[in-house]
Amino acid sequence: MKKFLFSIAAFTSIILLCSCKTETLETKGSPEYLEEIKQWDQKRLERLKADDGWLNLVGRTWLKPGENKFGSAKDNDVVIESDKVPDYMGVFIFQDSTVTMKVNDGVDVLFNDNPVKEMVMVGDTKKEMTVFQNGPTKWNLIVRNELYGIRFRDLESEFVKKFSGIERFPVNEDWRISADFESYDPPKKIQVPNVLGQVDEELSPGAVVFTKDNQTYRIETIDAGDRLWLIFADGTSGEETYGGGRFLYTDSKADSTGKIIVDFNKAYNPPCVLTKFATCPLPPKENYIKLRVTAGEKMYGENH
Predict the structure, then answer these.
(1) Which residues of 63-73 are buried (b: 16+ CB within 10 A; e: fewer)?
(2) How far apart are alpha carbons 150 and 301 in whole angstroms?
(3) How is the chain split into domains, by residue range?
(4) Considering the entire predicted model, what is its pTM?
(5) For the domain with range 57-156, which CATH number is right: 2.70.180.20, 2.60.200.20, 2.160.10.10, 3.20.20.80?
């Protein structure tokens, strides 16, 4: 894990050394486009502050095989750092690839607003993921390859109440780029690491290729259903923006001329910038570009 993070930092340093320059950044764009990005920012803020957003996470614990007692008391295997839940709530039983939750007598736990005492949990990789609640605290099972864990939320989080948004670069319509889409037939498999030190294999239907300042760049995309997902790092990574890169979505289909719009003003931070309880993917090695993308969200806090 340390070697992997060191290589990420070293690569980012090379990008910075190769691409730093003095810039004067100003807002530029039609009134309609500036309003579009304003609305995008507002929706982004609403998603982050939603009950299922990233801001209200308050805990994540990986389960050990067998029984894992949970509650707010410090001698639990899974400790919920909250005075809003009972000391001893029950047990998560992790056996093979199955996690069963059993709730102690006298403890009220709801699933879909109905009381539950024992239930097999469905992880976050499935559409039918199970989410449980006690008072303002919610939790669910997360699955990351061989790791199975419980992640908790506080619906009354003070962080959510105080959060006012993330600083961004000045909106510049020049960063709304018409790119070529080079499709792969069949889709190519690419290696996508994450902050846990794991590496997942994802399908890339193609790459976006664009020109900026007379230089050509390419970013491998990941199939995200009706959209394409770009995970990239650039010359601002580790400086003005998060060292682990940023995310960006585009339309999944090119237009009649084979072009796809890549709008870097809509580049945003992975959730790891906002919480230590996320398990973010990092850019594949192909997606480190030697270009300062001075568009989209800047770093939040001190998590460079």
Answers:
(1) beeeebbbbbe
(2) 25
(3) 2-51+167-287, 57-156
(4) 0.88
(5) 2.60.200.20
167: number of Cβ within 10 Å: 9
Rounded Cα–Cα distance for residues 66 and 151 (Å) = 18
Cα–Cα dist 21/17, whole Å? 10
pLDDT in tens, 97-130: 999 999 999 999 999 999 999 999 999 999 999 9
- The strand pairing partners of 261, in sequence order, are 178
The pair of structure tokens assigned to 168 is: 């961004």
Q: How far apart are CA 166 and CA 183, in angstroms?
A: 34
Bridge partners (DSSP) of residue 132 are 111, 139
Residue 205 has phi, psi (to 5 degrees) of -75, -10
245 touches 233 (CB < 8 A): yes
Beta bridge partner(s), residue 101: 92, 119
- Gap between the Cα atoms of 97 and 286, Å rounded: 33
| β-strand partners of 79 | 71
Give the dihedral sign, CA 234/237/241/242. Answer: positive
The two three-digit tokens of residue 296, written as one number:
């989209």
pLDDT single digits (tens) 64-102: 999 999 999 999 999 998 999 999 999 999 999 999 999
Query: 10 Å Cβ neighbour count for 188?
Result: 16
Q: Mean pLDDT, to the nearest integer, of 233-247?
A: 97
Choose among 259, 240, 248: nearest CA to 283.
Answer: 248
Q: What is d(CA 140, CA 78) in angstroms, rounded to the nearest whole number?
A: 13
